[in-house]
UniProtKB/TrEMBL annotation, chain A:
Catalyzes the transfer of a methyl group from methyl-cobalamin to homocysteine, yielding enzyme-bound cob(I)alamin and methionine. Subsequently, remethylates the cofactor using methyltetrahydrofolate. This is Methionine synthase. It is an enzyme of class 2 (transferase). The lineage of its organism: Bacteria, Bacillati, Bacillota, Clostridia, Lachnospirales. PROSITE patterns: B12_BINDING (PS51332), B12_BINDING_NTER (PS51337), HCY (PS50970), PTERIN_BINDING (PS50972). One of its GO terms (molecular function) is methionine synthase activity. It comes from Lachnotalea glycerini. Its cofactor is Zn(2+); methylcob(III)alamin. Residues 315-559 form the Pterin-binding domain. It catalyses: (6S)-5-methyl-5,6,7,8-tetrahydrofolate + L-homocysteine = (6S)-5,6,7,8-tetrahydrofolate + L-methionine. Zn(2+) binds at residues 206, 271-272. NCBIfam families: PRK07535.1 (NF005719). Pathway: Amino-acid biosynthesis; L-methionine biosynthesis via de novo pathway; L-methionine from L-homocysteine (MetH route): step 1/1. Its EC number is 2.1.1.13. It comes from the Bacteria.
UniProtKB/TrEMBL annotation, chain B:
It holds the Pfam family Met_synt_B12. Gene3D superfamilies: 3.40.109.40. This is Cobalamin-dependent methionine synthase-like protein. Residues 123-188 form the AdoMet activation domain. GO terms for molecular function: methionine synthase activity. It comes from the Bacteria. It comes from Lachnotalea glycerini.
């Protein structure tokens, strides 16, 4: 019978542990268990048979760690080991004459993906692809992706299985007792992503025993609309005489599993420490239980790598600041590849109360596809809010959805057939909620009925791709009221109908209503409040505009969406405090020089802005900023100041420069620099805090710094250095193992650019070591690099 | 777990400079934030240990070539390999603060380094208490990367302890650990109390190191 059809209709049983049994049969510590498929095939066959005799429906082939990374140093290929594993499992099924399924068991690659780790998403995908193709070819009935603890790795594995096989996909993850994955996702966030990717069943395995999994189960059951799998260890590991043991015996295990089945899991099995006896007793205890009916939870959710945002009666704020339209400073940042500026905008909006961030990087003269990808990855490496991928470029949308860690919001599709034909397949493939604009080939209807009709058309077309209403969010299009008296009313009446009659969530780009009018904030606020009242689920606004957030918090309190007005109180009691502290600061205003020396960022910004009214930017740098930095730098070198103090001053100086950059961007000028320096943490090294410190200081001293990041190949460093014909390159490395890559990089640099200078720094380096690898300068701390760069560029 | 401010300050290169309230608050705030976000986890296994000669140690089937480790383990019949981490939150915070507040990033970095050491000390204490019941004493823990004990052995340690599956530490191609605030080490168990004093900085040959703890010299 088709596996997908029986999932969730009756209790199904996985087998138990393989690894811990192999250890008891002589597998040595450090030996790769999957190689036993080829060297000890009888043992593996016997284990499978014993589980089949215990009565299980699905056996996990011994392929858990059969991946190209773990098998790299063996004489076997991934395909050989996977094929042997599947064949053995199938053989066991045939020999026992059981009606059972064979799962291609896919474990974690054992490497962490970027940005936390060093593995590229695409490299992870390729590795999983190799496993999946081999597994299906050898005859697996399903893919079990298990013992994974990073949503990004899970996404790579699911995509590989989905795009290269026709097999059903089950995913079980390791959560800790607090219900978090290693990289921070809670149960709801992981579920949102996996449901978006349309896997067939979701659950827990490893890490915890049945007691702890039972406690986590309600979290999953509450949000999950798919069959649930629970494969616990035989208890939490305990160390006895230096060896890890699992102590829950078969009877106790079976009892606990029964509770788990009654709480809503319909697929049960075991992980580390479980035996055929555990499974047999569990089957006896649970086989006649009728699984709880699976109910669609009808939740409209999007997620980041760690958390969800659910659209419901409480409206949400989508921060609109990362969109270059009408923003000269952001345009400049996009053109100059200044990701840091964008990241700061993202963090600032989060601070201001945004729940979701819009990301639009479309500028005519830039490569939107690669910049979108880079920006999404960059933001997701530091901000845990879900993102709205905002682009009309379908290739950019596709690439961004593919590498997005979580379930994104997509902006947008519209009623044009072309648009639906392009966007809906992507949503079906990668998952996501999608903003639907009520316009089509005929334009934007000027009637409520016209817009509703388009919404209905979109809903119908989405259904063809099995995209449900819960994953649509309709934009009824705010049009400026200055060109049509009726514009606001049409938008709002349509919104009212869609939200309250059709039961679909709604969104608006709120500020469009006031285009062409003076004091736009005033009318925007009023419009926003009415829209919220009519049922706006999410407003795309600028959360740093106080009036808009005032309207938002007030509406939530008045509409019964703010219990005990707690958010209102928190927000406004805080903001009064802020005001008093700001005014205090203004009373005893400090000079730019003092602000930098004392490390006061806000004061430095205010002072610089003030002084720029009367002083030329260059004079401000030479007469105030640099002397202040010199003073602090000297203090650091004389050891009257220590690192955090130096860095606070560096941050303050940066705020001062920020004021200058704003002014220049407004005037359309590009800031001049003393010279360009390329810096990077060398290949293989991931510790880059020292390099980041050097970067900020160099920038403070007026250098243009091209920061290539960490784990950068010699080739990329050389290419960038040559392209920009730079005089100076700064390299950092922390470990002895990576200093070797530093040496290779220096050699290649000297060949390609004989006149360039290379300065190096990092924990294990010494002057002798630096000389040995051919560096021109060894900087023992951040200030050393400043001195060297200043000398070099002064000539 | 408790914060060790003295160690955090040492990692920040503090040498008794004047500290105003702002800096002191910044250090406390960043350290507290880290402390509340960590998820310490550890795993260890015990093995028969044999020091074959001056440069070779045998931990059951794993042969390690290192003069320094052989010296450390001389006279031990058993040894423990352990791995510990405070989790990925330190790396995440450092990354975030590197963008918004570099001073805080440096403090999280230092506090994280101090915390993982404290955690290893706690773990070592547990192991010590178990060992003493069997009449065994602990040698100072010795990690790949110390002296001539090559980092390459990380690969063996990781497979033996199943680090990625059990406690979520993974290894880069260059044998660096992620999360970065993680430690692996060998602890020798010997029947005699000799050579059991903690070495920490003294076992390191880089005497010019900014961060060398002079207490141990």
């Amino acid at each position: 019978m088709n596996f997908r059809n029986i999932l969730g209709t009756r209790m199904l049983f996985f087998d138990g542990a393989m690894g811990t049994i192999l250890q008891s049969k002589g597998l040595k510590p450090g030996e790769i268990p999957e190689l036993w498929n080829l060297t000890h095939n009888d043992t593996i066959l016997e284990i499978h048979k014993s589980y089949l005799k215990a009565g299980c429906d699905i056996i996990k082939a011994n392929t858990f760690g059969a991946n190209p990374f773990k098998l790299k140093d063996t004489t076997y290929s991934c395909e050989e080991v996977v094929t042997a594993g599947i064949m053995l499992a199938k053989d066991a099924v045939a020999k026992t004459n059981k009606d059972a399924y064979v799962a291609l068991d896919i474990g974690s690659l054992g490497k962490l993906l970027k940005p936390l780790g060093d593995l590229e998403f695409t490299a992870a995908y390729e590795a999983f692809k190799e496993i999946c193709i081999a597994g299906e070819k050898a005859g697996a009935d399903l893919c079990l992706i298990e013992t994974v603890s990073d949503t990004y790795e899970i996404k790579a594995a699911v995509l590989a299985a989905k795009e290269n096989t026709h097999l059903p996909i089950i995913v079980t993850m390791i959560f800790d007792e607090e219900g978090k994955l290693l990289t921070g996702a809670n149960v709801a966030a992981a579920t949102a992503m996996l449901e978006g990717l349309r896997v067939d069943a979701i659950g827990f395995n490893c890490g915890l025993g049945p007691v702890q999994m039972q406690k986590l189960l309600p979290d999953l059951h509450k949000v999950c609309s798919l069959p649930i799998v629970v494969n616990p260890n035989a208890g939490l590991p305990v160390v006895v005489d230096g060896q890890t043991m699992f102590n829950v015996d078969p009877d106790e295990f079976a009892d606990l599993m029964k509770d788990i089945a009654l709480s809503g899991a319909s697929i049960l099995g075991g992980c580390c420490g479980t035996t055929p006896e555990h499974i047999e007793k569990t089957i006896q205890m649970c086989k006649d239980i009728q699984p709880l009916q699976i109910v669609d939870k009808e939740r409209s959710v999007i997620s980041s790598y760690s958390q969800i945002v659910e659209l419901n009666n409480k409206p949400k704020i989508i921060g609109e600041r990362i969109n270059p339209t009408g923003k000269s400073r952001l345009k400049q940042a996009l053109r100059e590849d200044d990701l840091e500026y964008i990241l700061k905008e993202a963090l600032a909006q989060q601070e201001s109360g945004a729940h979701i961030l819009d990301v639009n990087v479309g500028l005519p003269e830039i490569d939107e596809v690669s910049l979108m990808e880079k920006t999404i990855i960059g933001i997701q490496s530091i901000v845990d809010l879900p993102l709205q991928i905002d682009t009309s470029n379908i290739e950019a949308m596709k690439r961004a959805m593919r590498i997005y860690n979580g379930k994104p919001l997509i902006n947008s599709v519209n009623g044009k057939q072309d648009s639906m034909d392009a966007v809906f397949p992507l949503v079906a493939q990668y998952g996501g909620m999608v903003v639907c604009l009520t316009l089509d080939e005929t334009g934007i209807p000027e009637t409520v009925e016209g817009r509703i009709k388009i919404a209905e058309k979109i809903v119908k077309e989405a259904a063809k791709y099995k995209i449900e209403k819960k994953d649509l969010i309709i934009d009824t299009l705010a049009m400026t009221v200055s060109t049509g008296q009726e514009n606001s009313k049409i938008t709002l009446d349509t919104l009212d109908y869609i939200r309250n009659q059709m039961g679909i969530h709604t969104v608006l780009g709120v500020s469009n209503i006031s285009f062409g009018l003076p004091q736009r904030e005033k009318i925007n606020t009023a419009f926003f409040t009415i829209a919220l009242y009519k049922g706006l689920s999410a407003g795309i606004i600028n959360p740093s505009i106080e009036a808009m957030m005032n309207a938002y918090y007030s509406y939530c309190a008045l509409s019964g969406n703010d219990e005990q007005c707690i958010n209102y109180i928190n927000h406004f009691s805080q903001s009064t405090e802020n005001k008093t502290s700001v005014s205090n600061l203004q009373q005893d205003q400090v000079s730019l020089f003092d602000a930098v020396v004392k490390g006061l960022s806000e004061s430095a910004y205010t002072a610089a802005k003030e002084m720029l009214n009367t002083k030329a930017p260059l004079d401000l740098i030479d007469e105030d900023l640099i002397p202040a930095l010199d003073k602090v730098g000297q203090g650091f070198e004389n050891k009257t100041l220590f690192l955090p103090q130096l860095l606070m001053s560096a941050e303050a100086a940066k705020s001062g420069f920020h004021a200058i950059k704003e002014l220049l961007a407004k005037k359309g000028n590009v800031s001049s620099s003393k010279g360009t320096i390329v810096i990077a943490t060398v290949k293989g090294d991931i510790h880059d805090i020292g390099k980041n410190i050097v970067k900020v200081l160099l920038e403070n001293y007026g250098f243009h710094v091209i920061d290539l990041g960490k784990d950068v190949s010699p080739e990329q460093i050389v290419q960038t250095a040559v392209e920009n014909q730079v005089k100076l390159i700064g390299l950092s490395a922390l470990m002895t193992t990576t200093v070797a890559n530093m040496e290779i990089t220096i050699q290649q640099l000297k060949t390609a650019l004989p006149d360039c200078k290379v300065m190096v720094g990092g924990a294990v380096l010494t002057q002798t070591y630096a000389d040995m690898i051919g560096a021109d300068f060894y900087s023992k701390d951040a200030m050393g690099s400043i001195r060297y760069a200043n000398e070099l560029f002064a000539v | 777990m408790e914060l060790n401010k003295k160690e955090t300050l040492r990692y920040l290169g503090y040498k008794g400079q004047h500290m105003d309230l702002e800096i002191s608050n910044l250090i406390d705030e960043a350290s507290e934030e880290l402390l509340h976000s960590i998820h310490p986890k550890s795993v260890y296994k015990e093995f028969d240990c044999m020091v074959q000669n001056e440069t070779t140690v045998l931990l059951e089937s794993l042969s390690i070539n290192s003069r320094n480790l052989a010296k450390n383990l001389k006279g031990c019949e058993r040894a423990i390999i352990f791995a510990a981490t405070i989790g990925a939150s330190a790396d995440m915070l450092i990354k975030r603060y590197s963008i918004t507040n570099l001073a805080k990033a440096s403090v999280v970095q230092a506090a994280g380094a101090a915390l993982i050491e404290t955690y290893c000390d706690t773990l070592e204490e547990t192991i010590r208490n178990e060992a003493i019941l069997k009449g065994l004493y602990l040698r100072p823990r010795f990690s790949p990367g110390y002296g001539d004990f090559s980092l390459e052995y990380q690969r063996d340690f990781f497979t033996i302890l199943e680090c990625s599956k059990r406690i979520g530490i993974t290894l880069t191609d260059t044998c660096l650990m992620i999360p970065s605030k993680s430690v692996t080490a060998v602890i020798g168990l010997s029947k005699s109390k000799n050579n059991c004093l903690s070495e920490k900085c003294t076992s390191c040959s880089n005497t010019a190191c900014e961060y060398r703890d002079h207490y141990y010299i």
